[in-house]
Amino acid sequence: MKQSFTMAEAADILGQNKGVLKIWRARDICRYGGDGTRMAYSQVEIIKMAAALSLNGIGIDLKRAFGIMEDGQLGSIFTAIVAGQIWPHDFWLFYVFDPERRGEPRVWGIARREEEKVMFGDPVDHAIPSEAFLRVNMSAIGRRCLKDIQHHG
């Protein structure tokens, strides 16, 4: 399987125009692919971009979504998915919006589903009210995007 992809190939896998990836670079939203004239995107970078787009699609600001992708645990999860490792549990993004800060997060974290209460307590009974509480299966997003990469070539 191909290990690196041009900007045009990455954009195609993501269902985006190549110009969108250039705009992300120009606006410092996403700097994946290296620097220089011949950028190459790794499979993990493409998975991170797809995951950021998924988060953006459910209401998380795109630049913030890319910031979440820099979480070291997510990098490990996506790297393991590319390597074909099977883990007994999926990992989830838990994201709590803060209504007093115009939809910015009050708190977020990456964990297995059963660790949610340890991280946040009961999401329905917050001491501070929240606009929304999201649970996003990041492992499932990674596996779906890897299939998109595999079918591209």
Category from helices, strands and their pairing:
alpha+beta
Corresponding CATH architecture:
Orthogonal Bundle
How far apart the termini lie comes to 8 Å
Biggest beta-sheet profile: 3 strands, antiparallel
Helix fraction, binned, reads: 40-55%
Overall pLDDT confidence:
86
Low-confidence stretches: none
CATH class: Mainly Alpha
Query: Strand portion, in percent?
Result: 15-25%
Number of spatially distinct domains: 1
Strand order of the largest sheet: 4-3-5
Count of individual helical segments: 7
Q: Shape from CA axes?
A: globular
The value of Rg in angstroms is 16 Å
- What's the total number of strands? 5
Using the coordinates shown, work out and report the CATH topology: Multidrug-efflux Transporter Regulator, Chain: A, Domain 2
- The secondary-structure element order is EHHEHHHEEHEH
Walk me through this protein's architecture.
The protein is an alpha+beta fold and 153 residues long. It has a single domain, classed as Multidrug-efflux Transporter Regulator, Chain: A, Domain 2. Helices cover 47% and strands 16% of the residues. Strands 4-3-5 form a 3-stranded antiparallel beta sheet. A two-stranded antiparallel sheet has the order 1-2. A hairpin with a 7-residue loop joins β3 and β4. The longest helix is centred in the N-terminal third of the chain and has 15 residues, at 43-57. The mean pLDDT is 86.
Topology:
Elements lengths: L3 E2 L1 H8 L3 H9 L14 E2 H15 L4 H8 L2 H12 L7 E7 L7 E8 L3 H5 L12 E5 H15 L1
Antiparallel strand pairs: 1-2, 3-4, 3-5
Helix pairs in contact: 1-7, 3-4, 3-5, 3-7, 5-7
